[in-house]
Amino acid sequence: MPGLEAGFAAHIAAGVTTLCHCWQVTRRDGAVFAFTDHDMPLRFGGVTFRADTGLSARALAQTSGLSVDNTEALGALCDDGIREDEIEQGRFDGADVQAWLVNWAEPSQRMLQFGGSIGELHRAGGSFRAELRGLTEPLNRPQGRVYQKPCSAVLGDGNCRFDLSEPGYAEERAVETVQDAQSFRWAGFSGFEENWFVRGRFDVIDGPAAGLWGMIKLDYFEDAQRVIELWEPIRGALPEGTRVRLTAGCDKRMETCRLKFNNLVNFQGFPDLPGEDWMMAVPRSDGANTGGSLR
């Protein structure tokens, strides 16, 4: 078999094999989970692959072109392995996945069968099903800039270049009153004008939901309290005293970039792009056709 280590190839060619599958999942926060469908734990590459997770895999589809390699991993939820609340919080979304075919009698003999990331992940009845996407999947995404009037950059990223650590653009506070993990209220929260945080980020700094974040939908005052509402609930517990960070929002308009952030030099939109009415322009029989309004 071309591409296989000689000892592993000889083992497979022998006909009677001692093979199993091993999976390693590395989340974006650095947490590593490793499983095997063998009946005993295995260790290689400095990682121990647990045998008591009930993890299995469906057939792997791979191609030589740019179409997406894909498969599914099936497994049982357990308290000290993949937990239901962590799936609900989205902590496994986009995690890196590697899958090996391993000689369990000699783990140094192995072959990497799959490398990619977790796509959609579902849970039901004490189990989970994870769609795995191959390394070619990002090649199917649109690349390059889009010509549009609003700014295409994300506030604070490499294209925007705005420094969000500047005073007045972020606020850290302890949770006081929260409803449904989506609506938050503070007394004495002044120093920022109303709607300052609309379209901004709401990041959880500590507590059970640390690392989770949401987008801010509304920012207003009501009954001497400041109210911050998110588009979707934070998928984790937020007890009183949990530290959160609110970051100012940007509506992508050139005026906002200039007046709110003083960052017009890095504006990534095309505000003078003609609108759809420009396509309806017709010749005029009188006067000058300057390209202005037809009315």
TrEMBL record:
One Pfam family linked to the record: Phage_phiJL001_Gp84_N
Record domain Bacteriophage phiJL001 Gp84 C-terminal: where: 195-277
Protein name in the entry: Bacteriophage phiJL001 Gp84 C-terminal domain-containing protein
Species of origin: Sulfitobacter indolifex HEL-45
